[in-house]
Structure prediction request, 490 residues.
Amino acid sequence: MPQYLDGVRLLHHREQQTTTDATLTFAVGARDETLPTVGVAHALEHLVMSTVRRLPIQIDATVDTTATSFVASGTPERVGEFLTGICAALANPPVERLEVEAGVLAAEDGWVTHPMAALLYFIRYGARGAGLDWLDGPGPDGLTADQVTAFAQRWFTADNAVLQLTGPIPADLKLPLPTGSRPQHQHYPARQFAGPAVVGIGIPGAAVLLSLPNTDAARTAALATDVLQQRIEESARHGGGHSYVVDYDAVQQQDGTTDWVLYAEAREGAEQEVAQAVVESLTDLAADGPSEEELQLALDRFEEERATTDAELGAEFNVLRRELFGEPPAEPLDPERVRATRPDDLAAVLRAALPTAIGYAAEQAVEQWTKHGFTEVSLCPVGEELPAGEEFRPPRMARLFVREARETALVVTPDELAVREEDGVHRVRWDEVAGVMRAGDGTTVVFGTDGCVILVSGDLYRGGQKVVAELERRVDRSLWFQESRFKAED
Prediction:
């Protein structure tokens, strides 16, 4: 029978030890925010952890794209204090500390995930869901007490939590979290390309996003990405000395697939070599599969993990995680089917993912991808024709002396805002505005859910204030935010 504590699902690992290790996980992360509330989960985590900071045990907390976790190790009594304190603070966040923690968050300047993974999620999903990992939003100083409290009340409930304990259960443990119906996660359609795509900006490194099925009993996709990661590491780090960090990130989707991002950082001057290592590792494995030695190492890692973890509770956690995130159930893991995996099985999985793959390279190394059949694309959808509507042009002096200004035009229609720039036409429908930022220099920045960004001001366009007024009339006030003063100073 499932175990519960105050409505929170409990998974108890019964190892023989006198101390207690606890992980309290909530099925909510950065992808459940909105553009005007980017960073609210991280801010809440800081506020909550401040209330237990003087406990004399090991404590930690993390916020990633999909989940928020609070961790403690120590005597059962102290771990019990930690868990009770965390839950009490989540139920009634100490928002009076928000201004102080805003400065701490700005000093931390942390990413939810690696920048290359964040960028590829943005290319795939735009300014929503996992794509928000790439955007700053209002900054920590732009979040309000009401936003933090509302986020806590919606997501940090007993029904949306799992507590994993190893060792003794703290006596009389209380988890004073609010109860209610489990919140539902929003899922967004992926951006589609005509074949594999690649983008390039200034991050030194290379990466690839692959959407792979994750419900089969052999967990073939996990083995395939393990082999791909070790191939990239052997080539970019151990073979060439071009990289140190080779790692991955993953986000599960509602349709039974997982978006895996494998990335390799590049030392200065080695961007070409690292991009070559990533794309050739991927395409070679998709064509020919791994060697027997590479496959055996992945299988040995699988066996080692099963031997050193509680397989039964691990399987129970995975089933519960899928339930919390609204994902389809998976076939139970079958170790015999895993062991029976052959190189051709992994090649087939990677080959099937190639048509929707998105690669990344530093700008000067994009050619490493295009010569393998990847098409370079922009960070957001770009068209060719401006729609018909009221047109606004840059000031006359700008058009006289700035070549780009002669091509630029902003158009307002009953359905959308559009701008023609040097790279083409960007469009944001009124009902697809993800957020509107008032920048420190007076510019109004419009973010579309598909990733397009349009700047408006009286300095940029004659009559630009009329466009701003139209935005104020059409876009809900909850979507507006000020640029962070920390970002402006930087």
The chain is about 35% helix and 20% strand. The domain at 197-376 is CATH 3.30.830.10 (Cytochrome Bc1 Complex; Chain A, domain 1).
